[in-house]
C-alpha cells in the first residue's frame, strides 16, 4: 500500500511570501498525484492534478512539480485567501496525505 | 453547472444504519466514476468508497462489509448505505465525481454523528 507523507505539518508564513509544501510517496506513483485545498467549513477543492496541471479556475500562483516519490506544491506569492489546509492524493489506492496547515505568521 | 448536494446525515446510535444521498446536476452520475470521502472532526481526509460507471465498487478496509455504494439513474443520485455504524464512523461525508482518478467537484458534505 502506498503511503503519502506531507511536510511540514504546519507552515507559518506572511502574505506575499513564497510557500513550498512537500508530499513524499512510499513508492513511485509516477506523475499521478493531485493537490487539494480545504478552507475551514468548506469542502476540498482540486488545485493540481497529474503533479503539475492546474485545475480549471486555479490561479497561476499555484504550481506543482515532481515525479516518482517526491512532489512539491508551490504558491509563489501568498494571498490572504490561500491560508488553508492542503492535501496530496495519489491515484493508486485513492488515499490522501495527512495534510499541511498553512497559517498566517 | 456541475453540482453535488449531499443529504441524509444526522445523529445515529452505534449499531444503527443510515443512508446518505448525493444528488448530482450538470452531469450524469451513471456515466462517471463517483466516490465518497469522509473527514472525522479535526482530522484529515479518508477515502471511503468508489463506484465505476460499469458498476464495479471498491471500499476502504475500515468500511468493507458494512457500507454499500450505489447509484440511481432515474434520480441521478449517488448513495452510501451505512450499516453497523461505529463511533469512529463519525465524520463529514463528502461525495465527489472522479475525474480520471482525481476528485472534482466535491459536494458540501453531510455530518454523520454516531453516539448513544
What does this structure look like?
The complex is a heterodimer of chains A (105) and B (116). With 105 residues, chain A is mainly β. Chain A is built from no helices and 10 strands. By secondary structure, chain B is an all-beta fold. Chain B is 0% helix and 55% strand. Chain B contains no helices and 11 strands. Chain B has strands at residues 3-7, 10-12, 18-25, 33-39, 45-51, 57-59, 67-72, 77-82, 91-99, 102-106, 110-114. In chain B, the strands form 2 sheets. In chain B, strands 2, 4, 5, 6, 9, 10 and 11 form a 7-stranded mixed sheet that branches. In chain B, strands 1-3-8-7 form a 4-stranded antiparallel sheet, with no helix packed on it. Chain B is globular and about 40 Å long. Chain B starts with a strand and ends with a strand. The relative contact order of chain B is 0.32. Chain A binds chain B through residues 32, 34, 36, 38, 42-46, 49-50, 55, 87, 89, 91, 93-99, and chain B through 35, 37, 44-47, 50, 58, 94, 99-109.
Could you write a compact summary of the structure shown?
The complex is a heterodimer of chains A (105) and B (116). With 105 residues, chain A is an all-beta fold.
* Main sheet summary of chain B: 7 strands, mixed
Shape summary of chain A: globular
- Distance N to C terminus of chain B: 40 Å
Structural class from helices and strands of chain A?
mainly beta
Shape designation of chain B: globular
Q: Measure the end-to-end span of chain A.
A: 36 Å
Low-confidence stretches of chain A: none
Tell me the series of helices and strands of chain A, N- to C-terminal: EEEEEEEEEE
The secondary-structure element order of chain B is EEEEEEEEEEE
Give the class of chain B from helix and strand content and strand pairing. Answer: mainly beta
Instruction: Please give the oligomerization state of what you see.
Output: heterodimer
Q: Helical segment tally of chain B?
A: 0
Helix percentage range of chain B: under 10%
SS elements, strand count of chain A: 10
Strands of the largest sheet of chain A, in order across it? 2-10-9-4-5-6
Strand-residue fraction of chain B?
over 45%
DSSP helical segment count of chain A: 0
Rg of chain A, Å, rounded: 13 Å
**Helix coverage percent of chain A:** under 10%
In round numbers, the mean pLDDT of chain B is 96
